[in-house]
């Protein structure tokens, strides 16, 4: 039985993790901790159903409400402010927190020598140089919950010597809702149009990132960090059906791919069960109805975020942190109606011009890089 802590339990990944745990065999997993920012009603309902030992609520007012609610029905559940304790009592920490805020969960899980089922790509991207050494701690390991990286993780298992055998990683991209469109026709797209993802149902931030291809750009950096493969050996292939979740090409010419219907429960269950295979099946393909798989090159002129991510990744140091922070600011502003969709890449590009070339050595350095980049991005939005 694995004791599972879920950070971001009321978000898309968090809810699906609870679904996976519910559909597993009785007693296979035990939810020991849940964490949220401020969703009171939802986390109270989750806590009443799964009976964790602790519930972490970041927002003070929300925390007081959750504590009051749970006191009446489940007085044994401890309601706390800090996420650190989650990693102490869990075997697996699922990090489904959205954005940079997920960094503390990532760090705590690895420091405590636990398995990190990582869906929060930003913490790895922004803090790559800080997170990398923590992975050497005994027991600490990252199993990616991102579908592409989970696919690569699976493909890699066909080689006994990855550093020798891997030629190329091929990350697949659905292309998002605007695939095939040019910049001119995308000038005035609405938030609703950008949120209409053709194949995946996800949270708003990542859905917008998919529409700009920044999600794929961040995933290129994530793949570099996770698998230690150079940027010249990571390619992006647009695959609109989202059935091939990514591929690895080996030095003998063989390409290994992982295929399944788009369902995040498969990568979640994989991360909980690895090195075993889950007893629950998610996303198995019906080959009598699947008739074709298409592949095409990404349109790098319309979707400029992809190349911006490669640039930031190649610079390294705090550049990916700047990229991710500027993107968060630009996307928030787009969702709030402050800027146009087409401005997202321009804001990020302009922000990166101010990058100071710092190599982060500590969490404080990362926070400082994040703060600086956000300041610049907000300035770029105002001009
Ligand atoms: Mg992904």
Walk me through what this model shows.
45% of the residues lie in helices and 15% in strands. It is an alpha/beta fold. The strands form two sheets. A seven-stranded parallel β-sheet has the order 4-3-2-1-5-6-7, sandwiched between helices. A four-stranded mixed β-sheet has the order 9-8-10-11. The mean pLDDT is 95. It has two domains: 143 residues, Rossmann fold (3-Layer(aba) Sandwich), CATH 3.40.50; 194 residues, RNA polymerase sigma factor, region 2, helix turn helix motif (Rna Polymerase Sigma Factor, Chain: A), CATH 1.10.1740.10. It is globular and about 55 Å long. Strand 3, helix 3 and strand 4 form a beta-alpha-beta unit. It is built from 17 helices and eleven strands. The N and C termini lie far apart (55 Å). Bound molecules: magnesium ion. Magnesium ion binds next to helix 8.
Short description:
This protein is α/β, with parallel strands linked by helices. It is built from 17 helices and eleven strands.
- The helical percent reads 40-55%
Unreliable stretches, pLDDT < 50, 5 or more residues?
A: none
Number of strands: 11
Instruction: Give the overall shape, derived from the CA principal axes.
Output: globular
The number of helices is 17
Report the radius of gyration as a whole number of Å.
Answer: 20 Å
Bound molecules: magnesium ion
How would you name the oligomeric state of the polypeptide chains in this document? Answer: single chain
- The CATH homologous superfamily of the largest domain is termed RNA polymerase sigma factor, region 2, helix turn helix motif
* Structural domain tally: 2
Order of helices and strands: EHEHEHEHEHEHHEHHEHHHEEEHHHHH
Query: Order of strands side by side in the largest beta sheet?
Result: 4-3-2-1-5-6-7
Indicate the CATH architecture of the largest domain: Orthogonal Bundle
What percentage of amino acids are in beta strands? Answer: 15-25%
Mean pLDDT figure: 95
Major beta sheet, specifics?
A: 7 strands, parallel
Q: Which structural class fits the helix and strand makeup?
A: alpha/beta
């Amino acid at each position: 039985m694995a004791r599972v802590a879920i950070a971001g339990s009321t978000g898309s990944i968090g809810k699906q993790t609870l679904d996976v745990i519910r559909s597993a065999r009785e007693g296979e997993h035990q939810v020991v901790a849940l964490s949220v920012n401020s969703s009171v009603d939802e986390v109270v309902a989750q806590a009443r159903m799964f009976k964790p030992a602790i519930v972490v609520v970041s927002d003070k007012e929300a925390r007081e409400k959750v504590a009051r609610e749970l006191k009446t029905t489940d007085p044994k559940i401890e309601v706390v402010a800090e996420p650190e304790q989650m990693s102490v009592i869990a075997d697996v920490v699922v990090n489904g927190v959205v954005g940079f805020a997920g960094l503390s969960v990532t760090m705590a899980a690895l420091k405590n020598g636990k398995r990190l089922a990582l869906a929060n790509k930003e913490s790895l991207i922004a803090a790559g140089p800080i997170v990398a050494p923590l992975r050497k701690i005994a027991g600490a390991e990252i199993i990616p919950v991102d579908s592409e990286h989970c696919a690569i993780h699976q493909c890699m298992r066909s080689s006994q010597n990855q550093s020798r055998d891997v030629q190329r990683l091929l990350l697949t991209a659905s292309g998002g809702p605007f695939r095939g469109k040019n910049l001119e026709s995308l000038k005035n797209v609405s938030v609703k149009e950008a949120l209409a993802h053709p194949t995946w149902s996800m949270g708003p931030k990542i859905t917008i990132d998919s529409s700009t291809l920044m999600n794929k750009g961040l995933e290129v950096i994530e793949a570099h960090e996770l698998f230690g493969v150079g940027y010249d050996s990571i390619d992006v292939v647009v695959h609109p059906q989202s059935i091939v979740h990514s591929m690895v090409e080996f030095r003998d010419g063989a390409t290994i791919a992982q295929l399944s219907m788009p369902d995040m429960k498969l990568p979640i269950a994989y991360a909980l069960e690895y090195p075993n295979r889950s007893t629950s099946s998610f996303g198995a393909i019906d080959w009598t109805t699947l008739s074709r798989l298409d592949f095409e090159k990404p349109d790098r002129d319309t979707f400029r975020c992809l190349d911006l991510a490669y640039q930031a990744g190649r610079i390294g140091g705090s550049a990916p942190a700047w990229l991710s922070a500027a993107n968060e600011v630009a996307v928030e502003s787009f969702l709030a109606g402050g800027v146009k969709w087409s401005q997202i890449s321009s804001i990020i590009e302009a922000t990166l011009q101010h990058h100071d070339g710092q190599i982060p050595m500590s969490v404080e350095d990362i926070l400082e890089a994040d703060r600086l980049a956000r300041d610049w991005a907000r300035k770029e939005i105002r001009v």
